[in-house]
Amino acid sequence: MTTTLDDAAWVRRFHPAPHPRARLVCFPHAGGSASYFFPVSRALAPSIEVICLQYPGRQDRRAEPCLDSVTALADGTVEALAEWTDLPLVLFGHSLGASVAFETARRLQAAGTQVHGLFASGRRGPTAERDERVHERTDEGLLAELRRLSGTDGSLLGDPDMVAMILPALRADYRAAETYRHSPGETLRCPVTALVGDDDPKVTVEEARDWAAHTSGPFDLKVLPGGHFFLQDHQPLILDLITARVDAVA
Fold it and tell me: How many helices (H) and strands (E) does the chain have?
Protein backbone atom coordinates (compact mmCIF):
# COMPACT_ATOMS: atom_id res chain seq x y z
CA MET A 1 0.00 0.00 0.00
CA THR A 2 1.29 3.46 -0.83
CA THR A 3 0.46 6.57 1.12
CA THR A 4 -2.35 8.54 -0.51
CA LEU A 5 -2.68 12.33 -0.44
CA ASP A 6 -5.50 12.05 2.10
CA ASP A 7 -3.37 9.87 4.35
CA ALA A 8 -0.26 12.00 4.03
CA ALA A 9 -1.26 14.68 6.52
CA TRP A 10 -2.02 12.32 9.42
CA VAL A 11 -0.03 9.16 8.71
CA ARG A 12 3.73 8.62 8.64
CA ARG A 13 5.09 5.29 7.48
CA PHE A 14 8.85 5.33 7.93
CA HIS A 15 9.60 1.72 6.93
CA PRO A 16 7.14 0.35 4.34
CA ALA A 17 7.03 -3.44 4.45
CA PRO A 18 6.15 -5.67 1.48
CA HIS A 19 4.37 -8.40 3.47
CA PRO A 20 3.81 -7.39 7.10
CA ARG A 21 1.81 -9.61 9.45
CA ALA A 22 0.07 -6.71 11.15
CA ARG A 23 0.10 -2.96 11.50
CA LEU A 24 0.94 -1.04 14.68
CA VAL A 25 -0.58 2.45 14.92
CA CYS A 26 1.34 4.81 17.25
CA PHE A 27 -0.22 7.85 18.94
CA PRO A 28 2.17 10.53 20.32
CA HIS A 29 2.09 12.22 23.71
CA ALA A 30 1.24 15.88 24.30
CA GLY A 31 3.68 18.02 22.34
CA GLY A 32 4.96 14.93 20.54
CA SER A 33 5.09 14.04 16.87
CA ALA A 34 5.17 10.99 14.64
CA SER A 35 8.97 10.96 14.58
CA TYR A 36 9.05 10.02 18.28
CA PHE A 37 8.19 6.47 17.21
CA PHE A 38 10.79 6.20 14.43
CA PRO A 39 12.95 3.81 16.53
CA VAL A 40 9.93 1.58 17.14
CA SER A 41 9.19 1.48 13.42
CA ARG A 42 12.78 0.59 12.60
CA ALA A 43 12.94 -2.13 15.25
CA LEU A 44 9.70 -3.90 14.24
CA ALA A 45 10.12 -3.73 10.46
CA PRO A 46 9.50 -5.59 8.26
CA SER A 47 7.40 -8.15 10.13
CA ILE A 48 5.21 -5.48 11.74
CA GLU A 49 4.54 -2.31 9.80
CA VAL A 50 4.39 0.77 12.00
CA ILE A 51 2.37 3.83 11.07
CA CYS A 52 2.62 6.91 13.27
CA LEU A 53 0.08 9.67 13.71
CA GLN A 54 1.05 13.27 13.04
CA TYR A 55 -1.47 15.55 14.74
CA PRO A 56 -2.13 18.98 13.18
CA GLY A 57 -0.16 22.02 14.33
CA ARG A 58 3.38 20.59 14.54
CA GLN A 59 6.42 20.02 12.35
CA ASP A 60 5.29 19.86 8.70
CA ARG A 61 1.67 20.47 9.81
CA ARG A 62 2.60 23.59 11.78
CA ALA A 63 0.52 25.88 9.56
CA GLU A 64 -2.67 23.93 10.33
CA PRO A 65 -4.93 24.76 13.29
CA CYS A 66 -4.27 22.61 16.34
CA LEU A 67 -7.00 20.31 17.62
CA ASP A 68 -7.59 20.70 21.34
CA SER A 69 -9.90 17.79 22.17
CA VAL A 70 -9.44 14.04 22.26
CA THR A 71 -12.70 13.67 20.36
CA ALA A 72 -11.47 15.78 17.44
CA LEU A 73 -8.12 13.97 17.36
CA ALA A 74 -9.83 10.55 17.38
CA ASP A 75 -12.28 11.58 14.65
CA GLY A 76 -9.43 12.76 12.44
CA THR A 77 -7.45 9.60 13.11
CA VAL A 78 -10.33 7.28 12.22
CA GLU A 79 -10.83 9.06 8.91
CA ALA A 80 -7.11 8.86 8.16
CA LEU A 81 -6.96 5.13 8.98
CA ALA A 82 -9.75 4.21 6.58
CA GLU A 83 -7.24 3.03 3.96
CA TRP A 84 -5.02 1.17 6.43
CA THR A 85 -7.38 -1.48 7.80
CA ASP A 86 -6.43 -4.27 5.38
CA LEU A 87 -4.15 -5.78 8.05
CA PRO A 88 -4.80 -6.55 11.73
CA LEU A 89 -4.45 -3.33 13.72
CA VAL A 90 -2.82 -2.95 17.13
CA LEU A 91 -2.83 0.53 18.72
CA PHE A 92 -0.15 2.02 20.97
CA GLY A 93 -0.57 5.41 22.63
CA HIS A 94 1.53 7.21 25.21
CA SER A 95 0.05 9.77 27.62
CA LEU A 96 -2.43 11.89 25.60
CA GLY A 97 -1.92 9.36 22.82
CA ALA A 98 -3.39 6.59 24.96
CA SER A 99 -6.68 8.46 25.30
CA VAL A 100 -6.75 9.22 21.57
CA ALA A 101 -5.94 5.56 20.80
CA PHE A 102 -8.74 4.39 23.10
CA GLU A 103 -11.34 6.65 21.50
CA THR A 104 -10.08 5.65 18.06
CA ALA A 105 -10.44 1.97 18.98
CA ARG A 106 -14.02 2.57 20.15
CA ARG A 107 -14.90 4.25 16.87
CA LEU A 108 -13.24 1.59 14.73
CA GLN A 109 -14.95 -1.20 16.63
CA ALA A 110 -18.36 0.50 16.35
CA ALA A 111 -17.83 0.81 12.59
CA GLY A 112 -17.03 -2.89 12.26
CA THR A 113 -13.21 -2.78 12.16
CA GLN A 114 -11.73 -5.14 14.72
CA VAL A 115 -8.86 -3.81 16.81
CA HIS A 116 -6.59 -6.61 17.99
CA GLY A 117 -4.95 -4.87 20.91
CA LEU A 118 -4.54 -1.56 22.72
CA PHE A 119 -1.42 -0.52 24.62
CA ALA A 120 -2.16 2.40 26.96
CA SER A 121 1.14 3.81 28.17
CA GLY A 122 1.69 6.50 30.79
CA ARG A 123 -1.97 7.46 31.07
CA ARG A 124 -4.62 6.97 33.70
CA GLY A 125 -7.70 4.99 32.70
CA PRO A 126 -10.61 6.84 31.04
CA THR A 127 -12.68 7.16 34.22
CA ALA A 128 -9.78 7.96 36.56
CA GLU A 129 -10.16 11.72 36.38
CA ARG A 130 -7.95 14.47 37.79
CA ASP A 131 -8.49 18.21 37.91
CA GLU A 132 -5.38 19.31 35.99
CA ARG A 133 -4.94 22.76 34.48
CA VAL A 134 -1.45 22.92 33.06
CA HIS A 135 -2.94 24.15 29.78
CA GLU A 136 -4.07 27.34 31.58
CA ARG A 137 -0.55 28.24 32.71
CA THR A 138 1.72 30.86 31.20
CA ASP A 139 4.14 29.81 28.49
CA GLU A 140 6.89 29.46 31.09
CA GLY A 141 4.55 27.32 33.21
CA LEU A 142 4.04 24.96 30.30
CA LEU A 143 7.76 24.71 29.69
CA ALA A 144 8.35 24.05 33.39
CA GLU A 145 6.03 21.05 33.12
CA LEU A 146 8.03 19.70 30.18
CA ARG A 147 11.23 20.02 32.18
CA ARG A 148 9.61 18.28 35.15
CA LEU A 149 8.56 15.29 33.08
CA SER A 150 11.87 15.10 31.15
CA GLY A 151 10.12 14.38 27.87
CA THR A 152 11.94 16.97 25.77
CA ASP A 153 15.62 17.61 25.18
CA GLY A 154 16.48 20.44 27.58
CA SER A 155 18.69 22.17 25.01
CA LEU A 156 15.68 22.60 22.71
CA LEU A 157 13.78 24.45 25.43
CA GLY A 158 16.57 27.03 25.51
CA ASP A 159 16.07 27.89 21.84
CA PRO A 160 13.48 30.72 21.56
CA ASP A 161 12.63 29.87 17.95
CA MET A 162 12.04 26.22 18.81
CA VAL A 163 9.94 27.15 21.84
CA ALA A 164 7.80 29.47 19.70
CA MET A 165 7.16 26.63 17.27
CA ILE A 166 6.14 24.02 19.84
CA LEU A 167 4.08 26.06 22.30
CA PRO A 168 0.78 26.26 20.34
CA ALA A 169 0.63 22.50 19.78
CA LEU A 170 1.78 21.80 23.32
CA ARG A 171 -0.95 23.96 24.85
CA ALA A 172 -3.63 22.45 22.61
CA ASP A 173 -2.47 18.93 23.47
CA TYR A 174 -2.50 19.61 27.18
CA ARG A 175 -5.98 21.08 26.88
CA ALA A 176 -7.12 17.95 25.05
CA ALA A 177 -5.60 15.65 27.68
CA GLU A 178 -6.81 17.60 30.71
CA THR A 179 -10.37 18.27 29.53
CA TYR A 180 -11.00 14.72 28.28
CA ARG A 181 -13.94 13.05 29.98
CA HIS A 182 -15.06 9.52 29.23
CA SER A 183 -18.53 9.23 27.76
CA PRO A 184 -20.65 6.06 28.05
CA GLY A 185 -20.67 3.99 24.92
CA GLU A 186 -18.63 1.34 23.17
CA THR A 187 -16.70 -1.00 25.47
CA LEU A 188 -13.67 -2.54 23.83
CA ARG A 189 -13.51 -6.26 23.18
CA CYS A 190 -9.79 -6.41 22.43
CA PRO A 191 -6.93 -7.12 24.85
CA VAL A 192 -5.73 -4.01 26.68
CA THR A 193 -2.28 -3.65 28.22
CA ALA A 194 -1.62 -0.70 30.52
CA LEU A 195 1.99 0.38 31.01
CA VAL A 196 3.00 2.71 33.82
CA GLY A 197 6.18 3.96 35.45
CA ASP A 198 6.41 3.37 39.18
CA ASP A 199 7.50 7.00 39.72
CA ASP A 200 5.19 8.71 37.23
CA PRO A 201 3.74 11.93 38.70
CA LYS A 202 0.94 11.88 36.13
CA VAL A 203 -0.36 8.34 36.74
CA THR A 204 -0.59 6.09 39.78
CA VAL A 205 -0.70 2.33 39.47
CA GLU A 206 -4.34 2.33 40.58
CA GLU A 207 -5.23 4.96 37.97
CA ALA A 208 -3.58 2.78 35.33
CA ARG A 209 -5.54 -0.22 36.57
CA ASP A 210 -8.74 1.66 35.64
CA TRP A 211 -8.15 0.59 32.02
CA ALA A 212 -9.37 -2.89 32.98
CA ALA A 213 -12.94 -1.59 33.26
CA HIS A 214 -13.00 -0.53 29.62
CA THR A 215 -12.63 -3.83 27.85
CA SER A 216 -14.41 -7.15 27.98
CA GLY A 217 -11.21 -8.74 26.69
CA PRO A 218 -8.05 -9.68 28.58
CA PHE A 219 -6.30 -7.00 30.63
CA ASP A 220 -2.69 -6.80 31.73
CA LEU A 221 -0.88 -4.17 33.80
CA LYS A 222 2.87 -3.70 33.57
CA VAL A 223 4.56 -1.51 36.18
CA LEU A 224 8.08 -0.54 35.14
CA PRO A 225 10.81 1.49 36.85
CA GLY A 226 10.77 5.14 35.81
CA GLY A 227 8.81 8.35 35.52
CA HIS A 228 6.40 9.61 32.91
CA PHE A 229 8.70 8.71 30.02
CA PHE A 230 9.71 5.33 31.46
CA LEU A 231 9.26 3.74 28.02
CA GLN A 232 12.53 5.30 26.81
CA ASP A 233 14.42 3.00 29.19
CA HIS A 234 12.43 -0.15 28.45
CA GLN A 235 12.14 -0.29 24.68
CA PRO A 236 13.24 -3.95 24.28
CA LEU A 237 10.60 -5.16 26.76
CA ILE A 238 7.88 -3.04 25.19
CA LEU A 239 8.79 -4.25 21.71
CA ASP A 240 8.57 -7.83 23.00
CA LEU A 241 5.08 -7.15 24.37
CA ILE A 242 3.94 -5.71 21.05
CA THR A 243 5.43 -8.62 19.11
CA ALA A 244 3.75 -11.13 21.42
CA ARG A 245 0.41 -9.45 20.85
CA VAL A 246 0.87 -9.62 17.09
CA ASP A 247 1.98 -13.25 17.34
CA ALA A 248 -1.29 -14.03 19.13
CA VAL A 249 -3.21 -12.45 16.26
CA ALA A 250 -1.20 -13.88 13.40
Answer: 8, 7
